[in-house]
Every structure is written in structure tokens, then in C-alpha cells.
User: What shape does this take?
Amino acid sequence: EERDNSYQWSLEDFEIGAPLGRGKFGRVYLAREKTTHYMVALKTLFKTELMKSRVEKQALREIEIQSHLRHPHILQLLTYFHDEKRIYLVLEFAARGELYKELKRQPKERFSEHLSAKYTYQVADALEYCHQNNVIHRDIKPENLLLTHNGDIKLADFGWSVHAPSTKRNTMCGTLDYLPPEMVTGQKYDIYVDHWCLGILCYEFLVGRPPFLSETSDETYAKIKSVVIPWPSQVTPGAKDLISKLIKRKSTDRIPLDCVKNHFWILAHKDLPN
Ligand SMILES: Cn1ncc2ncnc(NCCc3cnc(NC(=O)Nc4cccc(C(F)(F)F)c4)s3)c21
Assistant: This one.
């Protein structure tokens, strides 16, 4: 039977498969839509958990933001529904899973210049599209990047995204390593927070750990505010040039995303065979 847009999806429409991951608020399962056998990722969010952490508005904002974004490197929110206990996000399935697991699987837990440039390019492309739609992702890190069966990037989890500009705090403590100075000091911030995170991300791809990683969060904060980047030998001059142009204290000094996509180091490495 035809399903028009008013069709109400429910759990009965899906066969639930293996768990794909777990988060604070619920789990992600591989699932198959019964009539088309289309594979999806089904993310469950427990309403009680969302209410306890007072993030239910955020869930609605994510659904609102995600349902208007369409881009090859953004994980698509296909639809959503809820029952008395949970909200369900029906997401595009990224068959090669979480990028950070791929990073840890690498011989020296870091990517080649080719993969680092390819992934940095694809994230920049997705962020440029988000910013054109006035959306700041705010939570760019390897844990929020997924890989398709072709090995292409899907930017996921808009659970923390907001419309620019904003002063909303990233109240849930994830890793501090990706926080830019303006968010650490609670100032107003804008789309350029994503540029900072892209620089941290590119560094982590090449080195295997973020530049300000420290034993304690106080040390991490201090390093973020100092913006002193350690440069291990494997970071080539081209990569250092790009990263240094993104990890800038003054948000408006961070180069635009189209300059990232056209940077000589990106162009020299993004299309090379592995
Ligand atoms: C692991 N894995 N492997 C393959 C694969 N394919 C697709 N997806 C996967 N995983 C799910 C990726 C996500 C996409 N969007 C998300 N969105 C979210 O988690 N939102 C969210 C969370 C907590 C709190 C809030 C709230 F309420 F505060 F807003 C919102 S998670 C896959």
C-alpha cells in the first residue's frame, strides 16, 4: 500500500537487528523496514533520561534541524516516531560504522595523509552546507563521524547543534579536547567553533590524539587558551599550514571552509589511492 507523508511510522514497521552502539540516552540498533527490506539505524532515546537531563527541547531541535538538512556527507534523519517510553530516530545506516574505531584500528592509530585529507575535505564540505543553512554542529569529533560502505564520511548526531549565533552551553561534558577558547570561557560564539573543531579533527587524524590532550581538564583548558600546538615529526609542512590556519584563538582568523577545501595540502592528498 502507498505510504504518503501522513503515514505514522511505528516499531511494528521494523525488524530489529544487532546493536550498533550505545549512548547515555539510549541505544542504536540495525533495523530493517519490513515491506522494502531497507536497512536503517534505529536510535532510541528514553524520554525519562531526556527529561532528567532537561534535553528534551534539544531532541526536538535536532529533529527540526536534521529533517531540513540533505547532503551526501550528512547522515540523514529519515523519520522519527515515539511511544510512551522512547523517541525513535530512524537514521540512514552507515555500514562501516564509527570513524574513531577505524582510527584505533590503524597500525599507529593514525590515518595516512591521503585518508586524513579525504576525511577533512568531506567534513569541511558537510560543515559548509550546515553553515549555509545557519546551523552550527558544535560537536565535531571522531565519535560523531561515521563511514559508508564506500568509506565516505557521514556527519552524525546533531544532538548538540544550534542555529547561529548562540550562547547555549555544551552542558553535557563530552571530551573537552575539542572545545574552542570562546566556548571554554563561555563567550558568545558563532559558526567558527566548527572551524576550530575541524582543525583539531585534522590534527587527530594525522597524529592519533588531539593537540591539547592532558591528564586533567584544567591542563586541557590551559592548553586550549594558550593555543600552543605540539608538532610531532610526522606532520608535514602542508598539513601544519592548514591546521595552524584553523586552530586560531580569534574565531574570525580561522580560514573559511572553501579555503580548507582548496588548500594545497588537501588537493595534493585527498584523491590519492590508499
Ligand atoms: C553506530 N552506528 N554504526 C552504523 C551507524 N549508522 C547510523 N547511525 C549510527 N549511529 C547513530 C548515529 C547518530 C545519528 N544521530 C544521532 N542523534 C542523537 O544521538 N541525538 C541525541 C542523542 C542524545 C541526546 C539528544 C538530545 F535529546 F539531547 F537532543 C539527541 S546519533 C551507526
